[in-house]
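Async update (no meeting this week)

Hi team, since we skipped the sync, here's where things stand on the single-chain job. The sequence we agreed to prioritize is pasted below, unchanged from the tracker. I ran it this morning and attached the output directly underneath so nobody has to dig for it. Comments welcome in thread, and please keep replies under the output.
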Amino acid sequence: MRAATSNFRTFSKGVRMRVKAETPHDTAAEKTIFRFAVQLLSGPIAPSHRKRNPVPPMRVIDIRGSQTLDALHMTIFRAFDREDDHMYEFQIGGKKPMDRKALRYGLALDDAYPEEKSAKATTIAALNLKPGNLFFYWFDFGDDWWHEVRLLEINPPVKGKGRYPRIVERRGESPPQYADWEDNGSVSDDRDFLFPEIVRKIEGAAAALAEQRQDEIFSLVENFCKSHLTENYIDICEELLDAAYCTWLPLERGKAQSWAAGVVHAAGMINFLHAPDSKPHMKLRDIAQHFGVSPATMEKKSREIRDAVDTFPLDPRFCLPEYTNDGPNVWLKVLDGLIVDLREQLRKKQGGVVIPFSPNAPTSPKKKEEAPKENKKKASKKR
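Output:
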C-alpha cells in the first residue's frame, strides 16, 4: 500500500485535526520490480576513453512498476555519472532508433509535437513490457547520447522497505559528459570515435527516416500547390524544404502535415501570399485549415524553417519570378564597400556575377545633345 497522506478535517465545534487519508492500493503490476539493462550505444566519447574502454558501458537498474519513465531517466542520469540535465526521450515499440512506429515519451512541453507523451505521467507498468523487450533512450538532443534499454526480468515485490529506483550493477567506466578533446589529439569527425558498428546503424536509420519524411512532406506540399497555387510555388517550396533539411531541422519530429503547412506558410510569407493584390492570393489561415493543423502550429513550424534557413521577405533564393525583376534585394550588392544596383553595372561582369539580362534597369538622365560645331559656326556668321 502506498504511504498514507495527511489531510485536515474539521470536526464539531470548529476543531481542526490532522488525520491520515489512505490512497488506493497499488495494482499487482505496480507492485512488481522491473529490472532493466541500459547499455550506452553512442555519444561524444573522447578517443582516450574509447581506447581504455572498448566495450560499451552498461548499467542494471531496478525500478517499481508504479514509478515513471521520468524516474527511470533520472536513474540513468545518475548511473552514468552525468552533471547537467538535458532534454530526453524514450522511444518504445520500434526496432531501431528514430523508428517512426515507436511511441515517444519525453517532457511533452510543446503542443507542436502532440505525438510525444509525457514521461512524468507514464508509469513503467503502463507500458505492458515483457522480459526481452527493448526500447531506446535518447539523452541531450545536441550531443545525442543513445542507449538501448532491455527489460531483463519482472520480479515480485521485496519484503521490507526498499528504496527504488536503484542501480544494481555497473559494468564499464562512464564516459565524461563533456569530453576533453585535447586529451588525445583532435578529432576530425565527432562520430569517428564512437562504437562504429552501432553508430552506422543509428545514423543510417536516422538518415533514411529523414529522407523519407522529407519526401512525405514534399508530396503534401506539391499536391497543395497544384490545387491552390502555381508551379512556381512548387519549385520555391522544394528549395525551401531542401534548405531546411540541410540545417538539421528535426523534420522527423511532429506530423508531416504540420511541416508541410509550415513550408507553404514560409514560402507565402517570403512572397506576400497573403497580400490582397497578390496573384495567387490566399489567407494564411486557409493553409492551416487545408492541412488539418492549428494556425499556431503552422506558424511555429514556419518560424522554425525561416529561422533555420535565415530568410526574409523577397529573399532572392526563394522569390517568385514576378518579384525578381523589381525586387530591390535581388539587384543590390556590396562592391568596394558600397551598395550598388547591379543593373547599373556592365552586363558581362557585375561584381563577379554574370547576369544574362537586366530588366527594368534604371536609366541615367540623357545629356542634351550639343549642336555640331559646323552649325555653330554658320550661326555665328549669320549674326
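Quick observations from my side:
Residues 28-171 form a domain with the Structural Genomics Hypothetical 15.5 Kd Protein In mrcA-pckA Intergenic Region; Chain A fold (CATH 3.10.290.30).
Residues 1-26, 183-194, 363-368 have pLDDT under 50 and may be disordered.
Reply here if anything looks off.
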